[in-house]
């Protein structure tokens, strides 16, 4: 297969590209720094420019690009960047794919479990309605921006991705230093649910969405066993053989990140299950947190 990937240098994109190439497929990176080489495509979604001709004949497109939601306080300008990088970029890419003489058969577009908002301990599958906070509103618009591709007959999958665990980036990498020093602890009261997925299963899940013709629409890309923040903290401490007795107060997080970002990213509870993935025959290699962390951190 020939697969084009936006966000191909990010945590998930780079792992996906490596997996595809290892298995003999061709992976083309779409980025602002791309262009010039046969295996790269230059685009600027905000300027609405792309090397369209290089996408002719690709079998599938995986769209992972978007402003990092944890890169700073959520000022009005940062919220605009978070929204526009996803919604405007997806709309432009979707319309570009429709205009190809030989469009791809499948378009896998990232979304996020932020779609559901803060829902305490409610069990959330793909049929549940969206939340009403900022990230939920962004996710609703983000998924809707794929409409041109869907209406043109391109099978479109919106992967609602959870917290991706990898020692090479993302949330887990940031946690490792304080936990190894014995100063890691629960966040807030620790009762909020964390819906996570190991990086290998995230990649396998994306490839499953590319390959499985029965999948379309929203697909939760999370492990089948979400845990509370307190459970996560104790499990990570146990795997690293370190104490986890120092909680991080909510007000400290709000001072550092701003109240909106802290509430959405670290203090809200989202208990998501991968109903459609499992019903489609996908089997997780890392269904449980302790086993996943032990495997991911065995060389750390």
Quick overview of this protein structure:
With 300 residues, the chain is α/β, with parallel strands linked by helices.
Provide structural commentary:
- This protein is α/β, with parallel strands linked by helices and 300 residues long.
- It has one domain: NAD(P)-binding Rossmann-like Domain (Rossmann fold).
- The chain has an eight-stranded mixed sheet, sandwiched between helices. Strands 7-14 form a two-stranded parallel sheet.
- Helix 1 packs across helix 6 and helix 2 packs parallel to helix 3.
- The longest helix has 23 residues.
- The chain is globular and about 60 Å long.
- The model has no long low-confidence stretch (mean pLDDT 94).
Just give the CATH class.
Alpha Beta
Low-confidence segments: none
Radius of gyration: 19 Å
Report how far the terminal alpha carbons are from each other. 34 Å
Assign a percent range to the helix content.
25-40%
Trace the largest sheet across and list its strands. Answer: 4-3-2-1-5-6-8-12
Count of distinct strands: 14
Q: Based on the structure given, which CATH architecture is correct?
A: 3-Layer(aba) Sandwich
The percentage of residues in β strands lies in 15-25%
* CATH-derived topology: Rossmann fold
Oligomeric state of shown chains: single chain
- How do the helices and strands follow one another from N- to C-terminus? EHEEEEHEEHHEEHEEHEEHHHEHH
CATH homologous superfamily designation: NAD(P)-binding Rossmann-like Domain
**How many helical stretches?**
11
Q: How would you characterize the largest beta sheet?
A: 8 strands, mixed
Indicate the overall shape. globular
Structural class: alpha/beta
Total number of domains = 1
Q: What would the average pLDDT be, to the nearest integer?
A: 94
């Amino acid at each position: 297969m020939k697969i084009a990937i936006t966000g191909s240098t990010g945590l998930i994109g780079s792992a996906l590209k490596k997996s595809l190439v290892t298995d003999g497929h061709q992976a083309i990176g779409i980025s602002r720094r791309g262009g010039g080489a046969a295996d790269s495509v230059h685009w600027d979604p905000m300027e609405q420019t792309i090397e369209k001709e290089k996408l002719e004949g690709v079998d599938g497109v995986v769209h992972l690009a978007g402003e990092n939601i944890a890169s700073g306080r959520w000022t009005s300008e940062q919220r605009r960047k978070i929204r526009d990088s996803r919604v405007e970029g997806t709309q432009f890419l979707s319309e570009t794919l429709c205009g190809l003489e030989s469009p791809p058969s499948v378009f896998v577009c990232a979304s996020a479990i932020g779609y559901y908002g803060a829902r305490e301990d409610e069990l959330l599958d793909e049929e549940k309605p969206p939340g009403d906070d900022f990230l939920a509103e962004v996710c609703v618009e983000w998924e809707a921006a794929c409409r041109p591709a869907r209406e043109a007959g391109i099978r479109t999958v919106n992967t609602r991705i959870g917290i991706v665990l990898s020692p090479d980036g993302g949330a887990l990498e940031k946690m490792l230093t304080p936990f190894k020093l014995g100063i890691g602890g629960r966040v807030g009261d620790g009762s909020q649910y964390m819906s996570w997925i190991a990086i290998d299963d995230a990649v396998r899940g994306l490839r499953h969405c590319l390959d499985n013709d029965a999948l379309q629409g929203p697909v939760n890309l999370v492990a089948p066993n979400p845990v509370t923040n307190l459970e996560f903290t104790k499990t990570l401490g146990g795997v690293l053989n370190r104490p986890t007795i120092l909680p991080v107060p909510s007000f400290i997080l709000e001072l550092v990140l701003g109240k909106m970002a802290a509430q959405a990213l670290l203090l809200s509870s989202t208990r998501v299950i991968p109903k459609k993935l499992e019903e489609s025959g996908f089997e997780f290699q890392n269904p449980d947190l302790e086993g996943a962390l032990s495997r991911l951190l065995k060389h750390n």
